[in-house]
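Researcher: Structure for this, please.
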Amino acid sequence: MQHNSVLQRVVNALRFTLALLLALLDSFVTWLDSVSREYIDISAVLMIERYLLAKELKKVWVWCQRRVRERVRERV
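Model: Predicted structure, token format:
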């Protein structure tokens, strides 16, 4: 009988360990999901900011080219 009792304790310990590992894995997957969603949100915001900055930079570049042409015409 004692052999069955020890075996049952080992089986119970393994079940508990498995349940604990599955709970940890579930928590880890949930955490990874939140991190990846945050990354996607940040990426979208940065993409929009990059677009707006590029648009402003193009305006400045066009303005500078126009000023250079005006200066060249004034000197000729």
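Researcher: Any notable elements?
Model: The CA atoms of residues 50 and 56 lie 10 Å apart. The mean pLDDT is 93.
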